[in-house]
Structure formats: C-alpha cells, structure tokens
Recover the amino acids of this structure.
C-alpha cells in the first residue's frame, strides 16, 4: 500500500505531503511532537502520550483547538489507511505558518502533521537477550528538555556519535551526572535497587519510563528517582534504557567498559517480562 500522511485535515500520499516554507516548526523549531508505538493495530499508552502532548503545547503557549476525540479518530484513521499493524505514528504540531518573526504571530492556526512507518518491535525482544552498548556524550541541549520540541540538534549529534562508535545510544552527561539518552531514559541497578534520574527540566518525562516505574512498584521492586553519576553507572550491577521504540533494553557496555559481567542481568530480565506483558495486555501483541 502507498505510504500516506496527514496534513491539517487531509490524508494524502507521503510524497505530496508538505507545509508552507514559513511554518514555524521549520524556521524556529517552534513545534512539539510525539512518537507512539502501534502494535497489533493498537496504539500503546495513547492517553499518557495525549496528556504529555497537551502539557507541552500549554508550556509553549501553542493554541491547538482540536478536541481529544476527533484527534484520536484521525490518528487511528491514518494508521488504518496505511495498512500497518506494527508501526510508529509520528505527530507534530507547530505554532503555525506566518511571516518570519521571532515573536508569536497573532492569528496563525497551528499546523498538525502525522506520519506512519512500519517498525519491527520483535527485534527489541531479541535484544533483551544480548543487550546493547552506549557511549557517553556531553549534554549540549537547551534548558527545557522536559518539553518534547522539535529542536533536537543536540540529540541528533549525540545519536550520530553513537552510530559512528558502533553503539546503540549516547548517554548525556552534565558534570558527573548521567541525565538520559539522546532519545531514551537511562537506568542503572545497584544492590537490587532500580535507579533513574528524577523528572524536572533536565530530562524528558518518558512514557515508557513512567510505565516501568508503575510496573516495578506494583511488583514490589525498589525504584529510586535520583541523579546518578558516570562512576555509579560504570560500577553498576546492571544498566538499561527505555523509550517508546525500545520499551526496555539491557545496556551491557558503557564507553567500551562492560557493565558487571557484560550480560543482561536478572533485574532487567524481570522488568522485561513485566514490560512486554503490559504490551500484550494493552494491545494483544506478542513476539
């Protein structure tokens, strides 16, 4: 089937989808976005994604008038029209199209675009057994990374450095503190305690992050939301990362140094069971 996109109320071939050159998302990164996993045709964690999208729009003062019900219908319609059961849907809302000026335009309606592309989630289940590698990069991003904006140059450069180093991800370092990955949240395990950076303005409040905390707490596992250092990460018993497209992946090496014995550990494996059982509960998807 041809790949289709949604642009301001229209579904059309991806090759024909476009916004005006003076879209503020293009010229100022004056836009927010969400990426949602779709498994077995069902959107995973849709309500948390929707709540975060609304919160981010409010933080930037972007006036977007579509109600949740019609928006949900349009997202599901685009997924269905693309004919994909396992995919990701990308959603972007900019402040609108207006003459280029730093100040907000007075009356430009927001622009909404959505795209869908196939995604192989089964690969992530397989990676639970092998783990992945990360490198360390300095955190050069702006001061409000809790808002999921399209201003991602710092993230892009860190991710590219990871690719060039043969790693899956780059963990971002501020001083001696590991904040998060370029597109993931970062975790370590020490003495059975699951540790991740607290929310605030310096990390993105990940949907997969919140889900894992809820699942781990319900399973009576100990979760500590506190900053941790690079030295702690290198000396951890286990490490892992979470994101929408990588619900949980063990980290077996950091900057070329093995984490513990260099293999996925028991806490991460147990969390993997909880995470993928939750996916199955919500969507019916199984590897």
């Amino acid at each position: 089937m041809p790949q289709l996109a949604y642009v301001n109320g229209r579904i059309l071939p991806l090759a024909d989808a476009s916004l005006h050159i003076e879209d503020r998302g293009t010229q100022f990164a004056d836009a927010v976005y969400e990426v949602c996993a779709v498994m077995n045709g069902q959107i995973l964690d849709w309500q948390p994604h929707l709540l975060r999208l609304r919160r981010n729009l409010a933080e930037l003062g972007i006036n977007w008038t579509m109600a949740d019900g019609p928006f949900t219908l349009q997202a599901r319609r685009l997924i269905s029209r693309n004919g994909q059961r396992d995919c990701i849907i990308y959603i972007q809302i900019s402040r609108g199209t207006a003459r280029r000026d730093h100040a907000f335009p007075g009356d430009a309606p927001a622009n909404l675009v959505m795209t869908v592309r196939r995604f192989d989630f089964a690969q992530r289940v397989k990676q639970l057994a092998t783990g992945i590698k990360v490198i360390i990069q300095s955190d050069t991003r702006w001061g409000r990374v809790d808002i999921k904006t399209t201003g991602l140059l710092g993230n892009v450069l860190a991710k590219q450095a990871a690719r060039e180093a043969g790693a899956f991800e780059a963990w971002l370092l501020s001083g001696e503190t590991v904040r998060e990955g370029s597109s993931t949240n970062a975790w370590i395990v020490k003495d059975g305690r699951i540790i991740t950076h607290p929310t605030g303005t310096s990390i993105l409040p990940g949907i997969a992050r919140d889900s894992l905390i809820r699942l781990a707490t319900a399973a009576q596992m100990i979760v500590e939301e506190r900053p941790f250092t690079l030295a702690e990460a290198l000396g951890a018993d286990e490490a892992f990362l979470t994101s929408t497209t990588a619900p949980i992946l063990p980290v077996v090496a950091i900057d070329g140094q093995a984490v513990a014995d260099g293999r996925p550990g028991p806490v991460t494996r147990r969390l993997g069971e909880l995470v993928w059982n939750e996916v199955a509960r919500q969507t019916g998807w199984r590897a």
User: Anything to note?
Assistant: The mean pLDDT is 97.
